[in-house]
Fold this protein.
Amino acid sequence: MYKFILFIFFCSIICFEKVHAQLEVLWYNKPAHNFNEALPVGNGRIGAMIYGGVKNEYISLNENTLWSGGPDIKWNNPDAIRYLPLVRAAALKGEYKRADSLCKFMQGPYTESYMPMADLNIVYMDIQDSSHYRRTLNLDSAIATTTFKNKGIQYKRIVFASFPDSVIVIKNEADKKASISFDILLKSKLHFRIKAINNNELVLTGKSPKHVEPVYLWAIKDSGAVQYGDEGMSFTVHLKIINEGGKLQADSNGLHLLHADAATILITASTSFNGFNVSPSKEGKNDALLAGQAMQIASAKPYHVLLSNHINDYKPIYERVAYNFGKSNGEDLPTDEQ
């Protein structure tokens, strides 16, 4: 169930039903404190959970094919046939708890585990306090937005995940020039390496474990729970900043932007997954090449083109169904209070 929920949150927001216009926006008056409160964007393959922090923004990144393990597992349970008549007999007698318990002996081995790909931290400078805070997800456009004021300056951060351009886009804006400064840190909970390219791009390469015990079996600890080896999927994340004004530089700690008028952050990612029955380490796709090509194509397009491509792709799907539940007295309240 946990893996299913993650997949839904990270990799698909196109299934929201259309409701009354004022209810098409989920909105909150404070940042998220945990994963369940973060706002999701996704294009069916790569996705992000956006926390909406003011000074410290945290975005969790995932890719829907990034799992532990490989195909070399015997999925059949030869003992299952022995328990089938026992399960039937218990069910026919109305002994449903016993039937349920016996069914567990018919199951195959535990599957491998869905893996978190990367963590993006954006630490903003000169942001001390904020007012007029608002964090939203517009279901009609699949765009997440964070807005607030700091020292009289209006800030706006826009995030969407484009299917046609295979990229996550984060746009930073302010109504006063030279007001955007931040440090970007990119890391992963998995084994990873990171390098900077041309002062404006980070490339994270990582390796998934060969085996991870399911979360509900975490009585197994440490190296027994998470095992690395030759087998295991590889993955690559590209992050690039396109700044308008200001000074941008890179070092071993990440990317550093000073006094920009605006900045667009692009993220592409890929894994070596090449099919359920193919070893991702021995016969996998070239994830570094795929992520790099996607970044090259996306970064050649202006922000307004990426935005237009995303909306034109998303809206016809979302607008196939419309519901109107009327008005509510609570429409002026944040979504969590409603």
